[in-house]
User: Fold MBL fold metallo-hydrolase from Sneathiella sedimenti.
Amino acid sequence: MTAKPYHHDPNGGFRNPEGSPNRRISKRGLFRFISRQLRSRVVPDIPEGHVLDRADVEAGIIAGGNPSVTWLGHAAFILRSCGKVILTDPYLTDIAGPAQMGPKRYVPAALKADELPKADVMVVSHNHYDHLDARALAAYPYKEETQVIVPLGLHRFFTRRGFTRVVELDWWQSWSEDGLTITALPAVHSSGRGLHDQKKTLWASFGIRTAEENIWFSGDTAHGEIFKEIGKRHGPFDLALVGIGAYEPREIMKSVHATPEEAIKIARAIDAKRALGMHWGTIMLTPEDPFEPPTRFRQAAIDQDFGAENALIFQIGETRSLKAAS
Assistant:
């Protein structure tokens, strides 16, 4: 009998790669933190220019062409490469939680779900509410045309909602079609949409490769040694889409979300030429200043000899040509 990989927990469900950071807080402390954040309705002051006007969003998408990347907010992107359209983690509605409970976004997504272009492929990294948005999926108009790529355990979530082309991948497994290859890669995180399904479905990052680009999408992840292996096996990457927000308090978040400084370490470990910061400036998941991450991200790029010019920050709704970013 072939031994199961380490991340398949022998007690059921899944676990992070060996050597990953662990939380050092009681379940009661964690529950208090989550309860406080679910009730929070803090609306920060939004810096001028953080969100593009709708006309500028539409003009940018047209001008960006193919290849290009568009940030819809949080971890939602539209990627265009080699004639393909790839959509990532389309959390696009107001509340990240069930039945109108949960943190509420303080700026809207650049596009609503029913305004999205038809994607050739949709990748979803894990089942947390700010990444797997059931209400957005219900409104998405191209359920039968779009190929969905998800980690283990999420196939049924999509087919129950009308998607007909759904593939589950374990870490290091790939799906390929017509010059596009999507590879599920490790991440240091967790999963669960309630009290009784914690770590029952897998979480993942993704390598997205065409003849023109090799892009890495982090989903949600903390820092860990596993990223050196990702770099060796699937790098170099032209661009890393990497989370830089929701990192405080560290005793809770160090096992699930990277700091801006750790995001640069991750980009370096996977051998990425450039890194685009995401998972910030949209929703109050944690108590740090929500507009602090970009400053720390750029400074970390300088401090770690990655280059400030290689640490990209977008406005919500902004599109840039990948040719210009290469």
